[in-house]
Design a protein that fits this description.
With 179 residues, the chain is mainly alpha-helical. Helices cover 64% and strands 2% of the residues. It is elongated and about 60 Å long.
Length: 179
């Protein structure tokens, strides 16, 4: 497959993907061009053509991260990304999760967000946060354990024999995180 064929087939999807991350059309076009320069220079190294699409999106993801690094911007967890809108009087797992996530230390919250919410591979998260892969894995695992502990503390959940959270949300008055 030639670079032109890749452009014809995937440029629109890549443009939308990049725009969704950077929210700026000019920057999107720059990153798209940078991505296709990398694709053009490395296309001959791709051994399995069936992996073309994931490969080019990985290049685009790395180009996006390079852009954010170049402007010294780290993606932070913002309140608007964790907020959910629910009825005033109902108390749901979403209430608890929002409170639990907001109370997570940044060093755990950021790797978890990039990995589990944004869908980056743990190695990409490690590179992005300039830390080792074992540290990143440890922080993500610790964040997951803190979330589970938060549900046990807040909502009265327990771990079953399989290590999975089970239970029902308690009344809001009994919740230690949501109040």
């Amino acid at each position: 497959m030639t670079t032109k064929q890749v452009w014809t087939k995937y440029a629109s999807d890549l443009r939308n993907f990049i725009l969704g991350k950077v929210k700026n059309t000019t920057v999107t076009e720059d990153i798209l061009q940078d991505t296709f320069i990398k694709i053009h220079t490395k296309l001959h190294t791709l051994k399995d053509i069936t992996k073309l699409k994931p490969w080019i999106f990985s290049i685009a993801r790395n180009s996006i991260m390079d852009y954010f690094k170049s402007i010294n911007r780290v993606y932070e967890f913002t309140n608007s990304e964790t907020e959910t809108y629910i009825e005033e009087n109902s108390h749901t797992e979403k209430d608890c999760l929002r409170g639990i996530l907001q109370n997570l230390p940044k060093k755990y919250r950021n790797p978890l967000f990039l990995s589990d919410i944004k869908g980056l591979k743990q190695q990409e998260v490690a590179n992005y946060l300039n830390q080792s892969l074992p540290t990143t894995k440890s922080h993500i695992q610790r964040a997951r354990k803190l979330i589970a502990q938060g549900f046990m503390d807040c909502c009265g959940y327990v771990l079953n024999e399989e290590g999975k959270l089970v239970g029902e949300v308690q009344d809001k008055d009994d919740c230690k995180v949501c109040n």
